[in-house]
Amino acid sequence: MAEGKKLEQQLKDAEAIEKYKKAAFIQPSNQQAILKCAELSVAIGNRQAELDKKVQYYREAYQFANAAYKLDSSKAQANYMMAVVYGKFTEVEKKNDALVNYTRLIKNYADKTVKLDPQFARGWHVLGKWHLEMVSLSSIKKAALKVIYSGTGTEATINEAIAHMEKCKTLEPYYCLNFYDLARAYQFNKQYEKAIQLLEQLKKLPTRKQEDAEVKALGATLLQQLQ
């Protein structure tokens, strides 16, 4: 586990995940090792240019996340990772019925995450991102997803997206991805000055893993568009 963490800090995700896989093999009950395998499978999948390779990594991430969840579903991190993986599935899914199901599952796992541990910052981020993605969907996808809200009276709002991600920022002030997505939420809400301020702050945050460097690059591109 220590070797994996060190490799992550050196921005070597491919090498790090092999260490976490070994830890999980040696100790199958090590939920943290399995969750790390899921997290890095998502991160590596994000970088794949080919759709088939993305899907392959996301499916592998699901296998790890599901295994961790089965070990102990009462842990906030296990529920969070399930929400993250289903979020990735929505990015590559083309069938509306599957998209509806994945979107419902994201919300369910995200809600459970923050209920189990209100201090777990990334739970608030994934819940806020769910609201952001819902409000920014195309009208066609919104129509396909309408069934989710049937009879519940609950709809996604940009204010909820912002509030949840602001809470994440308070709890984990150096989480790069949250800064980027919160800036996107403020951009969507036409609060451009706040978006720019967040992206300026994002540039100055420490780069603690490979994902951080990639998020900062996305942030720099968005900042150029807004200035």
Radius of gyration: 17 Å
Main sheet attributes: strand count, strand direction, barrel closure: none
Q: Can you tell me the residue ranges where pLDDT is under 50 for at least 5 consecutive residues?
A: none
Question: What sequence of helices (H) and strands (E) makes up the elements?
Answer: HHHHHHHHHHHH
Textual characterization of the structure:
It is built from twelve helices and no strands. With 227 residues, the chain is mainly alpha-helical. The protein starts with a helix and ends with a helix.
Please sum up the structure shown.
With 227 residues, the protein is mainly alpha-helical.
Q: Which helices and strands appear, and what pairs or packs with what?
A:
Elements: H1 2-9, H2 13-26, H3 31-46, H4 51-71, H5 76-92, H6 96-116, H7 121-135, H8 139-149, H9 158-171, H10 176-188, H11 192-204, H12 210-226
Protein traits:
mainly alpha; 12 helices; 0% strand
